Amino acid sequence: MAAPLLQAQVDINAPVSKVWALISDLRRMRQWSPQCRWMMQLGPLRPGTRTVNLNRRKYLFWPTTSTVTEVIPEKKLAFKVNANGTIWSYELEPTDRGTRVIETRHAENGVKPVSNMTVNALFGGVEKFERELVDGMNATLAKIKAAAEQG
């Protein structure tokens, strides 16, 4: 069963090339995301590249791995979180004033049951955690916007 599509977007007053440079440097994900504490890319940015990640929520820390699924320079970056099967993507489109970025969490095949059990046991339930994820997306995009628009 598909999980709900989680999504946030922001308009940034900066060229697509500048925004892409920020988003495609996965080492910087910890600067943007309130949940990601560390993301290490194992090889060049291309489909199939794996990452090792450390996430945090309050006092809980957990490691994950992900696999880059799509790289279209200055248009789209997507990766699949291997533990739960979700795909996270950043899509960039030029606007009259700069760049629109849409961050999405897709789970067309649903989130793996073991992940939902963990979220229910440790994070207060799936619905609450998904609201937190959307809040985190909005926070992530706000930080990327601030970085892209400065200077």
UniProtKB/TrEMBL annotation:
It comes from the Bacteria. Gene3D superfamilies: 3.30.530.20. InterPro entries: Polyketide_cyclase/dehydratase (IPR019587), START-like_dom_sf (IPR023393). This is Polyketide cyclase.
